[in-house]
Amino acid sequence: MPAHPLRALREDIAAVKRRDPAARNAAEIVLAYSGMHAIWAYRLAHRWWRSPGLKLPARLLSQLARSVTGVEIHPGAVIGRRVVIDHGMAVVIGETAVVGDDVLIYHGVTLGGNKRGSNDKRHPTIGSDVVIGAGAKLIGDISIGSHSQIGANAVVTHDFPEHSVLTGVPAINRSERV
To answer: What are phi and psi of 151, to 5 degrees?
Structure first.
């Protein structure tokens, strides 16, 4: 069940403070963190997306947020609580993506699809407590287990279990090699 909007706002601010050593105070986060602005716009757009007759306004809001923040989140995506998009710019989260709680996403990340013209699931599912490094590309209907780390610029095109450490092109699980 989603958190009450005010509680969710407090959780988001606390999550940024916990994850970003440069975050000095709540006012700075509320006023200057484009990743948080994108998440907050997404939440409203997602609510509209689920309401009959509001899909177009939801898409328009998501596009407005994209132009302001540099972060594109389709309103049909499902995003958990306390998700932090750090540095924001050039993040893309597709329509059927699912992102768990307490996920940290850096700039340039794509949660993209690999099928066209399909109403089927075509974007990644990310577990909770996952870190996705700058420039990583996760493509297709894949699942990444909770408590995983995805390195910068990794290209991930198939499922990985919990506690994975993914790096490379194509990504391999470095936790299995230790």
So the answer is: -70, 160
Residue 63 makes CB contacts below 8 A (sequence gap 6+) with none
Helix (H) or strand (E) holding 17: helix 5-19
Q: Residue 127 is part of a domain; what is its CATH number?
A: 2.160.10.10
Domain count, the chain: 1
Token pair listed for 148:
């995983």
For the stretch 152-160, contacts whose Cβ atoms lie closer than 8 Å and that sit 24 or more positions apart, written own/partner, are 152/106, 156/124, 157/114
pTM of the model: 0.94
CA distances from 100 to 59, 117, 177 (A): 22, 26, 26
The 10s digit of each residue's pLDDT in 55-95 is 999 999 999 999 999 999 999 999 999 999 999 899 999 99
User: Both tokens of residue 97?
Assistant: 């993506």
Written as six digits, the tokens of 18 are 């916990």
Structure tokens at 37: 């602005």
Contact 39, 12 (CB under 8 A): yes
Those residues whose C-beta lies under 8 Å from the C-beta of residue 113, and which sit 6 or more positions away, are: 94, 95, 96, 122, 123, 139, 140, 141
Q: How far is CA 137 from CA 43, 56, 70, 110, in A?
A: 23, 27, 17, 5
What range defines the domain where residue 80 resides? Answer: 5-177
